[in-house]
Amino acid sequence: MTKLGTPAAPLLGAELERELERLLAVPAFEPSPEFRSQALISDASVYGEAERDYEGWWGRQAAELLDWMAPWHTALDQSDAPSYRWFVGGRLNASYNCLDRHVLAGHGDRVAYHWHGQAGEERAVTYGELLGEVQGLAAALRARGIGPGDVVGIYMPMVPEVAVAMLACARIGAPHNLVFLGSSPQTLHQQLSFSEAVALITVDGAIQREGTFRAVKQEIDPVLAELPSLHTVIVRPHRPAPAPMRTDRDLWWKDAVAAGGGECPPEPLDAEHPLYLLYTSGSTGKPKVVVHSTGGYLTGVHWTSKYVFDLKPQSDVFWCTADAGWVTGHSYSVYGPLMNGVSSLMYEGAPDQPHRGIWWELVERYRVSILYAAPTTIRSFMSWGAELPAAYDLSSLRLLGTVGEPINPKAWLWYRTVIGGGRCPIVDTWWQTETGAILVAPLPGVSATKPGAAGRPLPGILPEVFDDDGDPVLEEQGALVLRRPWPSMLRTLYKEDDRYRQTYFGRFDDRSYFGRFSEPAYYVGDVARVDADGHFWIEGRVDDVITVGSERLPSARVESAVVAHPKVAEAGVIGLPDRQWGQVVCAFVTLIGDTRGSTRLEQEIRDVVRERLGEAAVPRRIVWAVDLAKTRSGKIMRRLLRNMAYGLDPGDVTTLRDPRVIDDLERSFAAGADSVS
Ligand code: PRX
Question: Per-residue confidence at 519, pLDDT binned at 50, 70, 90?
Fold first, then answer.
């Protein structure tokens, strides 16, 4: 493979290890002069502007970035807080902002998606073609009597038609409710029944990310029959499979489009009109159904896509690797890049399908310039070795992003060195399904970045860390809160407005809270620390903190230390009850390649943790696992590990990727029960 344009030969083996060790001592990385000179934002004045008047500043961003069909008169209405309203009185349409305006500006021929299938198929879809498809499907939905406020389910693989389906719903004001294709038919039923969906858009068959084939329509048919509100099912042929069609309810995509007539002007929708409903990943409790708005959501997503990823629509190829079924896919595989008019890559398969070098093959083939991925995937790549990416030309990359969980410094440095060739800034982006868009992240042409820290809040955002009494603390671990509303925030939890108020705004009681600050603060549910430079270090979910004696240890921090052992692939850490200490650490560990667990390895892992975090963090129990219990979006479900260790029912496992791991874990846990103290 040629290395044209690659500045230096890739580092491998011991040389790479030495370089990573050296870099671990570097506290922060400044943007390079080359990056800064071409960045959309290269000086820090934007922070001050937003700070002086955040409502006015957001108003200017909304006016500048979006096309409005009717202007809004008030940027933010807080009269019924915490039910906020942004851009009051304004009207707009999401699909118009993603498609029509680019086509009208003469960019109809620009590629919106380069699609790459698991079997190596390729397709390019332009903005003009996408608009045609969206109009066709939107008209089809309208012809079935579907209109503003009617919920439409989407259960599709990663194909451009998933974006078509989302935007067709947005065009007519029907909130979409995506269900990740890897979810079981029961989960699909549960979600569509709760949202009272009137229609579903799906496919006949699909190869799942893991490479297995599914006759999707046939498999879900029995549960669809149990949804009384569902009157329309539109089926897109994708991978041939028998698809039983019920004549009063089911239509093939092309027949539905033909019946719709093809034309469908965008509906002018209120800025607060719900754009979509989405389940949170549910790594800690009963899933919540988040409701996002149109005007505020699009403003936050457009701004962050443009400036956090420094998007240049004329030249960039953006690859957000998240499935459209998750919020990262909604905001950064669909709405964000399309609003910006940039070309994206969409890949149907998993990172190891059909082989472990596929991502790098795709970066080389499509000249991907910006890559956005989850730390869990980066750790997998690390364990597969630097030789794989070294075989490809990655010189087109100029910016790398991460999202979803804390990234341990070693993985951050590996990403920067091995994938980014040492020249690409890394944007570690902190946000949630609820926040709609990135809230804490570097601006790559401005900010210094520290390995493992999400960095400073974006302009207009005011996070703080509170102690148990609700007092702000610096350089101390505490609860993360957001002290100001922001446009892309969730508006409520679907059908559970009280739960919305309670979960996010009821943590510190009204007297101490609303009394002290002019605006109610949003309780994030994460543990964090802010350092003297104002950088935020996110430590994980509050529920995942282990208290050993008087030390509070976020699971993710202990996991980072366990993973620092070169033989460890991944670790999930929980607290076990202990008479002396209250709790002690128990680590579930998967090992690299065919390494086997041993007493010696246990001792080495303990030494590594002791050296990095001290005695309290040392795992008293180490359980060798084949796989960890992960959600479909790649998060470790520590709640499940905890419940199992405590002998409780596993609880809600609908978001678990592979329910079979529960049995394996139970066996491994029971097997080692009396072996280690
Ligand atoms: O704990 C934080 C973690 O993921 C949670 C949100 O999960 P979800 O709603 O599934 O959205 C994931 C994609 C936005 C947060 O509360 N998290 C997300 N990003 C980061 C993170 N933790 C540390 N660093 C991040 N960059």
Answer: low
Residues 6+ apart with CB under 8 A from 25: none
Ligand 1 atom with the shortest distance to the CA of 429: 26
- Which of 48-52, 120-124, 216-220, 672-676 shows the lowest mean pLDDT across its residues? 672-676
Q: Is 403 near ligand 1, meaning CB less than 6 Å away?
A: yes
* Distance from C-alpha of 637 to C-alpha of 629, rounded to nearest angstrom: 6
Angle between helices 45-52 and 54-65 (to 10 degrees): 110
Amino acid letter for position 22: R
What does the pLDDT look like over 108-121, one tens digit per residue? 999 999 999 998 99
Q: Which two tokens stand for residue 515?
A: 């009394």
Q: How far is the CA of 404 from the centre of ligand 1 (A)?
A: 4
Distance 568 CA to ligand 1 centre (A): 23
Residues in Cβ contact with 159 at an 8 Å cutoff, skipping those fewer than 6 apart: 115, 203, 236, 238, 346, 348
Residue 205, phi then psi, degrees to nearest 5: -140, 165
- Any atom of ligand 1 within 6 Å of the Cβ of 545: no
* pTM (2 d.p.): 0.90
What b/e sequence results for 525-540 when a residue is b if at least 16 CB atoms lie within 10 Å of its CB, and e otherwise?
bbbbbbeeeebbbbbb
Closest approach atom of ligand 1 to CA 322: 13
* CA–CA gap between residue 461 and residue 304 (Å, rounded): 12
